[in-house]
Design goal:
71% helix; single chain; mainly alpha
């Protein structure tokens, strides 16, 4: 199983590099009808505060909780199984 993981770890940076080189000239389009300003975001309205502050912070906090409560214990259980199988 480990040689497969090592091969995958070698292939992933290569694929990411090829994609980064191949996609250098891709330009994003601004949709018609949307105002284009280079000014910073003004947090005058409640909707702006929710969209630009509350929602991103909520996603980050929920991601951290998900990592620590669901993802991390599985890794600990796998490590314990490996230790038991080695002895």
């Amino acid at each position: 199983m480990e040689p497969m993981i090592r091969r995958t770890c070698r292939i992933i940076p290569l694929v990411v590099g090829v994609i980064a080189i191949a996609c250098q000239h891709v330009y994003a389009q601004i949709p018609t009808g949307t105002p284009r300003t280079d000014e910073p975001v003004r947090l005058n309205t409640t909707a702006d505060i929710i969209i630009y502050l509350v929602l991103p912070l909520t996603v980050i906090i929920l991601g951290i909780f998900w990592w620590f409560f669901y993802k991390k214990p599985k890794n600990k259980k796998e490590e314990e199984k490996r230790k038991e199988s080695k002895t």
